[in-house]
TrEMBL record, chain A:
Transmembrane segments: none annotated. The keyword Transport applies. The keyword ATP-binding applies. PANTHER family: SPERMIDINE/PUTRESCINE IMPORT ATP-BINDING PROTEIN POTA, SPERMIDINE_PUTRESCINE IMPORT ATP-BINDING PROTEIN POTA. It comes from the Bacteria. It comes from Azomonas agilis. The lineage of its organism: Bacteria, Pseudomonadati, Pseudomonadota, Gammaproteobacteria, Pseudomonadales. CDD domains: ABC_CysA_sulfate_importer (cd03296). This is Sulfate transport system ATP-binding protein. GO terms for cellular component: ATP-binding cassette (ABC) transporter complex. GO terms for molecular function: ABC-type sulfate transporter activity; ATP binding; ATP hydrolysis activity. InterPro entries: AAA+_ATPase, ABC_SmlMolc_Importer, ABC_transporter-like_ATP-bd, ABC_transporter-like_CS, Mo/tungstate-bd_C_term_dom, P-loop_NTPase, Sulph_transpt1, TOBE-like.
Automatic annotation (TrEMBL), chain B:
One of its GO terms (molecular function) is ABC-type sulfate transporter activity. Pfam families: BPD_transp_1. This is Sulfate transport system permease protein CysW. Residues 70-271 form the ABC transmembrane type-1 domain. It is found in: Cell inner membrane. InterPro entries: CysW_permease, MetI-like, MetI-like_sf, Sulph_transpt2. Keywords: Cell inner membrane, Cell membrane, Membrane, Sulfate transport, Transmembrane, Transmembrane helix, Transport. PROSITE patterns: ABC_TM1. Part of the ABC transporter complex CysAWTP (TC 3.A.1.6.1) involved in sulfate/thiosulfate import. Probably responsible for the translocation of the substrate across the membrane. It comes from Azomonas agilis. GO terms for cellular component: plasma membrane. The lineage of its organism: Bacteria, Pseudomonadati, Pseudomonadota, Gammaproteobacteria, Pseudomonadales.
């Protein structure tokens, strides 16, 4: 089901959290709302869910205005950042909750509910935890149970608030790949909020970059990275170097650098301050005489210029592609 | 709170040999103070009550005026505690789940009965509903009596016990936040279903604890009730007032017999309190591990 956000504004007291937000999400898409904390991304997600009411504007599901519909009638699945599992219920009861709350005429029998719950627990690969309580689960397990609980009512839209925010780095990586695969399986229109650009790039079909309550850019991961619409987007999507060349300044990413041990045409000399092997690439921190700001370069780990390199030596560098700032 | 202190003490009794002198003295004086201030009076009440044997002890308790006082106390508790339960949950809900203007003022006002002397609380009701009070003539016209009657006693008890349930629930509910309720709404629960299946189980032990404290205070309330009661034997005397009257009449054995009845009820409530408190601590402990 498609989601359309049209001309949404939201104030909290005198603070304007969202300014004229327009957004169209196609059916079956996986979209990331990306931005720094306080940019309004969570507020926008909560407005789509119906947990907050916008001051102006409307929310359309599949072309139908749902702005005046109550939370419980919107049929959205929502996963909270801290999962909000019902602490006094077992995993099974948590997942069954949505089905048991249905009006009597639509409520399935306990047998059907049990089948459905086990099916969902199998989907998230945690069927063996059905009798446990939330406090006995790890963060990653809680996350997946929260997802199973949200999917139980067969929502038309899935909304996730910082779904990996509270997990440690390794679990986080595993889970986001798993979520991307799951999305391919169930193909539910999904929106997730994140402040981590790597996460958005890796999982989402499209990224909505937000800052200070406005949408800065909407596009595929490739588009927003290659053609950033503003300085903010450029800086937010990755590390950047700032180089003064005479009167003009240029911006370039750490990997957009050519390095050489000998002086070459257009190459500039700099002192090596730090060498950091980061796996496939190695990061070198360079200091120029002409500016205080360091230059960071990332090259593949077996690059010729790195052989026998140590701190304090002189290295020659040249920005490959650059964006005038 | 004494339970959590003793259970969390890092020493066990078997190690008391190696305890420094200062620590031993402190523990000894704590027990001494406890014995003198709490156990001795308990002993005095019971020994005075049983001075003339079990016969007089039970007849003092089963005498019609004592039974009427007992009945009135139970009525006052039976009305004020459920009302406070409803009010307490509603107030705690408002304060912890919504943002609104004047919230801190409301929290302060909930505490008012704690800071106002109970005698003044009683006087307020006399000034409002007494014959010369604000609503006196209006009530007199309709032949309604509040002061020196059961409604006054219930009102006074209610006023004094208002904070107990709300005070216990507000921090608990603030700590728990609103996300589980939001999750329930998103999963299709109605307001009532959400309250019944999510909110209530989460606050259950805190609520029981608050109700127990509230009941204890409602049973033992003397000051406010004394002002509005009028001390009419067999009609407007609660148990604490009855004890006072018996004592003032130099009927010490009967006074202490009735007092021991209150004492037994208090001890029973103390046990309930201990039990619910341990359940809350367990719940806190579990959620702190998250």
């Amino acid at each position: 089901m498609s989601i359309e956000v049209s001309q949404v504004n939201k104030h909290f007291g005198s603070f304007q959290a969202l300014k004229n937000i327009d957004l169209k999400i196609q059916s079956g898409e996986l979209v990331a709302l990306l931005g720094p904390s306080g940019c309004g991304k969570t507020t926008l997600l909560r407005i789509i869910a119906g947990l907050e009411t916008p001051d102006t504007g409307s929310i359309l599901f599949h072309g139908e205005d749902v702005s005046s519909r109550e939370v419980r009638e919107r049929n959205v699945g929502f996963v909270f950042q801290h999962y909000a599992l019902f602490r006094h219920m077992s995993v099974f009861d948590n997942v069954a909750f949505g089905l048991r709350m249905k009006p009597k005429s639509q409520r399935p029998s306990e047998k059907v509910i049990a089948d459905k719950v086990h099916e969902l627990l199998n989907l998230v690969q945690l069927d063996w935890l059905a009798d446990r309580y939330p406090e006995q689960l790890s963060g990653g397990q809680r996350q997946r149970i929260a997802l199973a609980r949200a999917l139980a009512v067969e929502p038309k839209v899935l909304l996730l608030d910082e779904p990996f925010g509270a997990l440690d780095a390794k679990v986080r990586k595993e889970l986001r790949r798993w979520l991307a695969r799951l999305h391919e399986e169930v193909h539910l229109t999904s929106v997730f909020v994140t402040h981590d650009q790597e996460e958005a790039m890796e999982v989402a079909d499209r990224i909505v970059v937000m800052n200070k309550g406005v949408v800065e850019q909407i596009g595929s991961p490739g588009e927003v990275y290659e053609n950033p619409a503003s300085d903010f987007v450029y800086h937010f999507l990755g590390d950047s170097n700032h180089l003064k060349q005479g009167d003009e300044h240029i911006l370039f990413r750490p990997h957009e650098v050519a390095l050489a041990r000998q002086a070459e045409n257009d190459f500039r000399p700099a002192e090596v301050r730090d060498i950091r092997p980061l796996g496939a690439v190695t990061r070198i921190t360079l200091k120029l005489d002409s500016q205080d700001e360091f230059i960071e370069a990332e090259v593949i780990k077996d690059h010729a210029s790195l052989k026998g390199l140590s701190r304090g030596q002189i290295l020659y560098f040249k920005p490959k592609a650059n964006t005038p700032a | 709170m004494s339970s959590s202190l003793s259970s969390s003490a890092p020493f066990s009794l078997s190690k008391s040999q190696g305890r420094p002198l200062g620590q031993r003295l402190l523990i000894l004086s704590a027990w001494l103070a406890f014995g003198l201030l709490l156990l001795l009076p308990l002993y005095v009440v019971l020994s005075e009550a049983l001075k003339l044997g079990f016969g007089t002890f039970f007849s003092a308790m089963l005498e019609p005026d004592a039974l009427a006082a007992m009945q009135l106390t139970l009525i006052a508790v039976g009305i004020s505690v459920p009302l406070n339960l409803v009010f307490g949950v509603a107030a705690a809900w408002c304060v912890s789940k919504y943002e609104f203007r004047g919230k801190s003022l409301l929290i302060t006002l909930i505490d008012l009965p704690f800071s106002v002397s109970p005698v003044i609380a009683g006087l307020i009701y006399v000034l409002m509903f007494g014959a010369q009070g604000w609503f006196g003539p209006w009530l007199l016209d309709r032949d309604l009596q509040i002061i020196f009657a059961v409604p006054g006693i219930v009102l006074a008890t209610l006023f004094v016990t208002v904070p107990f349930v709300a005070r216990e629930l507000i921090p608990l509910m603030q700590e728990q936040g609103t996300q589980e309720e939001e999750a329930a709404r998103l999963l299709g629960a109605s307001g009532w279903q959400m309250f019944w299946h999510v909110t209530l189980p989460n606050i259950k032990w805190g609520l029981i604890y608050g109700v127990v404290l509230c009941t204890a205070r409602a049973m033992g309330e003397f000051g406010a009730v004394s002002v509005v009661s009028g001390h009419i034997r067999g009609l407007t005397n609660t148990l604490p007032l009855h004890v006072e009257i018996l004592y003032n009449e130099y009927n010490h054995v009967a006074a202490f017999s009735v007092a021991s009845l209150l004492l037994v009820m208090a001890l029973f409530i103390l046990l309930l309190k201990q039990w619910s408190e341990s359940r809350i601590n367990r719940q806190r402990h579990n959620s702190a591990e998250e």
